[in-house]
Design goal:
Length: 215
């Protein structure tokens, strides 16, 4: 057997792990038995594009800007991003009213509302399906020993940059094989003064919130 060095083992293992995460997401529970989610995986080049977009949002979306700066740092070590999306309309005919419309038909005819995070209004069961898929992928990543975190910011950045196309709702799962888990030390990009100032400015308004959803 040929000797395979650690760098290649890690690189190949990461690629295989992302494929298995996609399988887990693909096979996760779906309401109505309808598997309509779109799943793609991207590497450093696409992550850098998404990160630069998120970082460019600045004061409009402080959380996205922070996560963009974080993702630029993240690609210094082996990493990958699994992005999942779906369309907003309901194929179920449940007529549950959770979307704000009496029937699925009314929802599907409603005027689209585009925001930074998604295009709505949307079927709640499409949103639940997508989050179940993300949880399935993240759960498998954890079982495989990968550093992992679910991101809405990098996901909506991918939609805005057309990295993932023809979807209205998005979520992403970022994984890394960095030497130290990078995902729970993102506060290094903000000082305490920055935290206090941004929270005081953004949270009390509840209009843009902390992500900057609607212009």
């Amino acid at each position: 057997m040929a000797i395979i060095e650690m760098d290649n083992l890690v690189k190949n293992g990461l690629e295989r792990a992302v494929e298995l995460m996609a399988v887990a997401a693909h096979n996760s529970f779906r309401f109505g038995g309808r598997n309509t989610a779109k799943i793609i995986a991207v590497g450093n080049e696409e992550i850098e594009r998404i990160a630069e977009f998120c970082y460019s949002l600045g004061d409009m979306a402080p959380l996205a800007a922070r996560d963009g700066r974080f993702a630029i740092d993240l690609i210094k070590e082996p990493t990958a991003l699994l992005i999942m999306g779906d369309t907003r309309k309901s194929p179920y005919n449940y007529n549950c009213g959770a979307c704000g419309y009496r029937t699925c038909a009314e929802l599907n005819k409603a005027e689209e509302m585009e925001s930074l995070t998604a295009i709505g209004p949307s079927c709640q069961f499409k949103n639940i399906n997508l989050n179940i898929a993300a949880n399935a992928a993240a759960s498998l990543a954890w079982r495989l020993g990968l550093h992992c975190r679910v991101f809405s910011t990098l996901a909506f950045g991918a939609r805005a940059m057309n990295v993932i196309e023809n979807v209205d709702l998005v979520i992403s799962v970022s994984v890394s094989v960095a030497k130290v888990d990078p995902y729970f030390n993102r506060h290094k990009f903000w000082t305490k003064d920055q935290w206090d100032e941004i929270f005081a400015r953004e949270f009390p308004t509840f209009n843009r919130g902390f992500i900057g959803a609607v212009e």
